[in-house]
Amino acid sequence: MHPVAPAPTEPPLRYGALAQAFHWAIAVLVLAAWLLSPEGPRTPPSQRQWHETIGMAVLLLSVAHLVWRIGDPRPEPPAMPRWLAWFAAMLHGLLYVALFAVPLTAIAGTWLEGHPLTLLAGVRIAPWIEPDRALGHSISELHGWLGTAMLWLAGLHAVAALVHHFVLRDGVLLSMLPGRRRDPRADA
Ligand code: HEM
Ligand code: HEM
Description:
This protein is mostly helical and 188 residues long.
């Protein structure tokens, strides 16, 4: 007897509702965290608390997004030259790395400098590691640098999405947007 092959499942036309919700919530929060970045000791404490709280939300949502992504079917990429597919995959990979590296360097730097995380509603999370101020300072600087680099990457990614929509007209942008049931990659 032959084992029954599972019915081939068509890839979906769009990213799922929850994947889209994660994507757009993370995008808005990354931009907000960047706009509220502390610039030196004269930054008001409330701005620091908003920055750190929003940044922590980015970290938690990115973990949830990545876990959800494991079992969530994604749309098929449009046909494109191999180098472009490689470039797109690398850009997405770098964005995922940044979503973790930016908040984690912030936490490590803050704790190594001997400071607690200071979040909204008076939440303070004391360091879990021994201080090493010089290292903490370098890692905090790296955090600021990575945070800005991430914004440039996201900007490039957003431009690519707009090029897909308006120049290549392949519906990639629509696949990350809620909408009609027609195939967004066929009718863009
Ligand atoms: C996606 C999330 C985040 C982004 C895009 C981001 C971005 C930035 C940027 C660009 C700076 C440098 C500001 C400047 O020097 O002009 C900065 C500084 C800083 N960020 Fe974040 N950040 C994020 C998450 C976090 C988190 C989770 C914390 C929590 C500890 C945090 C704590 C800090 C602190 C304490 C500084 C000042 C560092 C210093 O003393 O030089 N950030 N951030
Ligand atoms: C900080 C901001 C952003 C971050 C961190 C981000 C991150 C990501 C990541 C990691 C993916 C890959 C999703 C996956 O395969 O699971 C993705 C996909 C996508 N993003 Fe963004 N994104 C941001 C902003 C934007 C903006 C502003 C636009 C539109 C103008 C956009 C449009 C898209 C589209 C269309 C896809 C699907 C690409 C495809 O299937 O090839 N993103 N984004």
